[in-house]
């Protein structure tokens, strides 16, 4: 990339409607958009020149306006359980990470939505670096495509079937790009990943939870709750000062009423911080009038070296917590961990890589 030259955006970021519009503006037929999407998402070519049913002029116009892949693969780490972690470099040299987790039911990918995160939760590796910028929709779709290319090269016919928006960044702080990303991957003409197979996780940006409820996409919502009362939540999640639990629960009620879809609450088990039996009881009380439509995911904490004030809860404490929730009729699971041998918690590979590059 030459200095001063404008970086071309990735064609992966355009929805079918946007690409159709673009072709019409170029004086081309609108079915060109369908043809290009077939090349991108079914045949999965990596250059415009390979799109052999397009004329040379159309290929030249595309090449002039867009790139296909905006990411440069820097590191790929494969864990014993099959989890693969990718470190990608963006055109402006920032690093992001993506994780692929093979499951019994398919292949799940965890994507990053921002470079860094401004929410600053005190247990999280992603928040160590303040947000440098939002990712474009194309940069988010490209993460899925690069994983799909990786699977294609293995030749076992595997497809990315599930997506979790749980990598670095707060997706609702980059709302429009994340929505465009969701439209692209969900579109039946593209990757056609079912909305019910996609989950977006938020730290609790109340106005955006309501907007998300209104937008009609059938994508699942997860909320990082991590504490059953304001004192504990504020001590680990600064955002709780702006959107305390009462406001969050108002937005949850709005979402449930509007969509009638289940919400997952994520709850990281931090030893002696939020893992006491009384916390479990408070959590059950908080959810008591919405047990049918809520689900609690108890997550083992992935230790982050910069946050050594936190430790993982003991197995015994997790079980006691779980039992209280169950006794109160709360739907609850203890989440399995993935790729513990490869820094699988969000932001960990990237933060390690950055430390190495500043100490070298
Ligand atoms: N910003 C969004 C999505 C990305 S974080 C959010 O906070 O929901 C995805 C999930 O990973 C969140 O539930 C987050 O709290 C959790 N998480 C962050 N750091 C973690 C760690 N070290 N161990 C386990 N889970 C962690
Ligand atoms: Fe940001 Fe989510 Fe990490 Fe909080 S947990 S700092 S919101 S990425």
From TrEMBL:
Its cofactor is [4Fe-4S] cluster. Pfam families: Radical_SAM, RlmN_N. It comes from Enterococcus camelliae. Reaction proceeds by a ping-pong mechanism involving intermediate methylation of a conserved cysteine residue. Its EC number is 2.1.1.192. Specifically methylates position 2 of adenine 2503 in 23S rRNA and position 2 of adenine 37 in tRNAs. S-adenosyl-L-methionine binds at residues 169-170, 201, 224-226, 302. Residues 103-341 form the Radical SAM core domain. It catalyses: adenosine(37) in tRNA + 2 reduced [2Fe-2S]-[ferredoxin] + 2 S-adenosyl-L-methionine = 2-methyladenosine(37) in tRNA + 5'-deoxyadenosine + L-methionine + 2 oxidized [2Fe-2S]-[ferredoxin] + S-adenosyl-L-homocysteine; adenosine(2503) in 23S rRNA + 2 reduced [2Fe-2S]-[ferredoxin] + 2 S-adenosyl-L-methionine = 2-methyladenosine(2503) in 23S rRNA + 5'-deoxyadenosine + L-methionine + 2 oxidized [2Fe-2S]-[ferredoxin] + S-adenosyl-L-homocysteine. GO terms for biological process: methylation. SUPFAM superfamilies: Radical SAM enzymes. It is found in: Cytoplasm. Belongs to the radical SAM superfamily. RlmN family. Keywords: 4Fe-4S, Cytoplasm, Disulfide bond, Iron, Iron-sulfur, Metal-binding, Methyltransferase, rRNA processing, S-adenosyl-L-methionine, Transferase, tRNA processing. Binds 1 [4Fe-4S] cluster. The cluster is coordinated with 3 cysteines and an exchangeable S-adenosyl-L-methionine. [4Fe-4S] cluster binds at residues 117, 121, 124. GO terms for molecular function: methyltransferase activity. It is an enzyme of class 2 (transferase). The gene is rlmN. This is Probable dual-specificity RNA methyltransferase RlmN. The active site is at 97 (proton acceptor), 346 (s-methylcysteine intermediate). PROSITE patterns: RADICAL_SAM.
């Amino acid at each position: 990339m030459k200095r001063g030259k404008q970086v071309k955006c990735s064609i992966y970021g355009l929805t079918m409607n946007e690409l159709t519009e673009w072709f019409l503006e170029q004086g081309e037929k609108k079915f060109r958009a369908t043809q290009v999407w077939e090349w991108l998402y079914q045949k999965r070519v990596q250059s415009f020149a390979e799109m052999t049913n397009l004329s040379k002029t159309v290929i030249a116009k595309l090449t002039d306006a867009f790139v296909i892949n905006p990411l440069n693969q820097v590191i790929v780490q494969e864990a014993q359980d099959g989890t693969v972690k990718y470190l990608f470099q963006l055109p402006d040299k920032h690093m992001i990470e993506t994780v692929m987790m093979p499951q019994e039911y398919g292949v799940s990918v965890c994507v990053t939505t921002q470079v860094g995160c401004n929410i600053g939760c005190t247990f999280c590796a992603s928040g160590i670096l303040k947000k440098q910028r939002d990712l474009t929709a194309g940069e988010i779709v490209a993460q899925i495509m690069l994983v799909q290319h990786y699977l294609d090269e293995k030749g076992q016919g595997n497809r990315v079937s599930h997506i979790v928006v749980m990598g670095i960044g707060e997706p609702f702080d980059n709302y429009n790009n994340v929505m465009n990303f969701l439209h692209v991957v969900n579109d039946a003409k593209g990757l056609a990943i079912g909305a019910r197979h996609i989950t977006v996780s938020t730290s609790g940006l109340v106005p955006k939870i309501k907007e998300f409820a209104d937008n009609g996409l059938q994508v699942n919502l997860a909320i990082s709750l991590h504490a059953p009362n304001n004192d504990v939540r504020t001590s680990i999640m600064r955002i709780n000062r702006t959107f305390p639990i009462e406001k969050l629960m108002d937005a949850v009620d709005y979402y449930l009423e509007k969509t009638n879809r289940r919400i997952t609450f994520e709850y990281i088990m931090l030893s002696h911080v939020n893992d006491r039996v009384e916390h479990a009881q408070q959590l059950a009380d908080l959810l008591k009038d919405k047990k049918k439509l809520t689900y609690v995911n108890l997550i083992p904490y992935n230790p982050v070296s910069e946050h050594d004030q936190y430790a993982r809860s003991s197995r015994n404490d997790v079980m006691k917590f779980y039992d209280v929730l169950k006794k109160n009729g709360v739907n609850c699971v203890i989440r399995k961990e993935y790729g513990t041998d490869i820094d699988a918690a969000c932001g960990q590979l990237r933060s390690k890589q950055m430390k190495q590059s500043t100490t070298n």
